[in-house]
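Methods — Computational structure assignment.
A single polypeptide chain was analysed. Its primary sequence is given first, followed by the predicted tertiary structure written as structure tokens.
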Amino acid sequence: MPRRHTDQDACPGSPVTWTQWLAAIMTGTGLAVMCWSGLLTDQDLNGGDTWPYFMPQKVVLAESLQNNRIPGWHPLTGLGYPLLAESQAGVFYPPTQILYRLFEVNRAFSVSTVLHYALAFVFAWRFMRSQGVSATASQLAALVYVYGWFPARISLEWSIIGGVWLPLTLWRGHEFLTRPGRMRFALLASALAVHLLAGHFTLAFITELCLIAYAVLMRVFTPQDRRPAWSTVSLVPAAVATGLLLSAAQILPTMELKQISQRDTSQTRPDRPFDPGYGHMPPLYLSQLVASWTWWHTPEIRSSGRLQQLPGSISSATNAVEAHFYVGLIPLGLIVLDLLFRKHRSAAPSVRRIWWTLILLSVFYATGWLLPVTGHLPGFSYFMGPGRYTIVATLGAAVLCGLSLDHLAGRRASLVPITIVIAGLTWFDLHQASRAVADAVPVPEIWPHRHESWIRRYFTSQPPRTTRVLAPGPNVACLFGTAAVPQYLGIGPAVYFSEAFDLARSPEDERFLSDEQHRKLRDLAVTHVLTDTRLPPSDWLEFVQAGPDALLNRIWGDPYAVRYLYAVRDARDRLESAPPDALTSWSCTVDEATVVEFDVTLSRPGILQLHELDYPGWTVFVDGRPAQDEAAAEHPRGGLVRTVPVPAGTHRVRWEFRSKAIRHGIQISVLTALVLWGGVFLRLPRRHNARNVKKEQ
């Protein structure tokens, strides 16, 4: 007889054996290695944000961790920025702390990617089991979730690192709602906290919303004898709040940055405002569910910008990666069959109602139609990419696919071969669709060629803190060991999005050799210009060297391109004084991410000026004694220079990054963890003693 599934299958009491766990772990690991095998051997990921954004962060991150320092500051991007506060480095995220201490930067990045794909599969599988899906069908459902949503976004490291925690958090939330207790509350809050520590809070915010909605829908749709009490449901937001406190070490520095960032200020350029609608999914683009790599994701369609022109699309820009939503043709067919045969099955109706509600809500929000309202609300207004809400729809589709397969397959014995065939075909389908969309691919190793770069050799031969380069590809030039503009940041100081940083980025721009460009480069203490083409003679640029570069050419995928390096003739020194003739000599004696020290000689008293970002937490010392930062006293933090008065003579001036937000955040995190888990473990002995007394009686 066919096996009938009921809501009881969704209860925590349904058995999950160690054998099933092992099978899921082996499958998840095998799929991750099969999909990204090259990243574990002799390949690096290239394309999208990988090298312009993530790798320059990881270099500073790894150097700090390997020296047992908190990487609070990145001194090379732009005029510097608070690395921990920007969040995407995931400084306190446990896998980051381990992997970037053990491996080279590129290998740590690759191992992290493969590890999170495997973990995402296992956690998704376990969540499917909590939804009443059988162990075998749960593997297909986990495949749909992980390889339907994430490979197309492989250039966005935060997607898979954040996506791991959505199914895990929902599983822990389900456990708490069905069997509330202190231990389950603590586990739920801790899962939420680790998700936040991973950085890039968009998916964490989506997870929190989904968790709260799931709790309410469980109360509404679950049969009365098994529905959670409202008092239990109300504790889910409390778990979210506790997770925020647990992750305060990350949250507080990010909140401090946000207050002076482009996301909460009027200082940014009016022609480049922060747009929360960027990355939406046009409603007609839902047709990709049945016409993915055969139509929508062909090169012609992608290059035409057709997404921007679809009826019903909002005015914000978008792209195929952000708007990707595809679960495979066979899983989609299973969901449709499940709808058609709804009168002939009684399997988990409450689970279906919950997930159909969440799917419809997430897809509707992904269109961006609600932004006129939500764009003014805390949380919603902080993040771009409404299309990212389709991660909830993908997870819901995976649940419905698994339930449908269980219902249609019937006999347990027939389920395994059917699932294997469907999974194989779905794997190929999802793989092809993601390849058509993804803007990053594994390529032969790039990182080891860093030491062959003539540009890097040039800049590392210069005295520390003396060079800053204008280069194509934001942030990439930081890999040469020099500070670089323009900068590329998800959330950054507002001044980086102001007129002062509106630079012509390539010689094709008629402003590139203009007097205005020259003035801005001098104001930013830029000393060199790197281009892809030879420049005509200029009064303020001097040719230095040219040739193909081993690192840059591999990043841009052009092995024969020639790079041209020029020096700005009248470039300002990174360290100056007011009046200008007061500073007679200087040298950098300590050059670290969070500490910079100079030996200076002044012919008369003056104001020392360091052309680096002035930001809360930077403290200056003169000859070991705290000194007053003149700019901080007169102007709000966030300016382009740090200043300090220095008397005549030879002195040692030292700037240290001592962030109160980081210190207080760590204190709150530790205190919350002690209270939360102390309340759990101090209660356990009393429970154990109570059981022993009851047995004796």
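Note: Confidence is low (pLDDT under 50) at residues 1-13, 692-697.
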